[in-house]
Amino acid sequence: MSVKTPRQQPFFLRWLLVIALVASISLLSGGSVPPEIVPGIIQIDKLAHILVFGLLATAVFRALPDGMAPHRKMAWAVGLTIAFGLSDELHQGMNPNRTMDGWDLLADAVGAFVATFVYRYWGLYRRVLEWRPIPRSAPGPLTEPLRS
């Protein structure tokens, strides 16, 4: 099954969400987490890892070149996300207020695989992510060319 997504954005714009997510995750993992913010249920942490790294993997999948075979895009998206998850855990391991956790890395990997799998094979999910509130072809000031 092929995944067709509209790609008319420049290279940098396609990777902007990935860059923003990586920067946000890195900033958040560098600080300490006050105990009153994290609920007593430990699994909420793993769920957060699954969701955030799933979003990251989906963003990477969408940013990769359109000409790449979907199964290769999926492998690259999952692989790059897991590599970043490993670097994030190593980063946390160097922080005296945080700990490195292999279960977090496993949650990152599960999130990356599930999200890219769902994005690739479930059209409804893909259409929701690709939906634009303002269609590109709609006439108006946002889509008309500038006149000199």
UniProtKB/TrEMBL annotation:
<feature type="transmembrane region" description="Helical">
    <location>
        <begin position="47"/>
        <end position="64"/>
    </location>
</feature>
<protein>
    <submittedName>
        <fullName>VanZ family protein</fullName>
    </submittedName>
</protein>
<dbReference type="InterPro" id="IPR006976">
    <property type="entry name" value="VanZ-like"/>
</dbReference>
<dbReference type="Pfam" id="PF04892">
    <property type="entry name" value="VanZ"/>
</dbReference>
<feature type="transmembrane region" description="Helical">
    <location>
        <begin position="12"/>
        <end position="35"/>
    </location>
</feature>
<feature type="domain" description="VanZ-like">
    <location>
        <begin position="40"/>
        <end position="121"/>
    </location>
</feature>
<keyword id="KW-1133">Transmembrane helix</keyword>
<keyword id="KW-0472">Membrane</keyword>
<keyword id="KW-0812">Transmembrane</keyword>
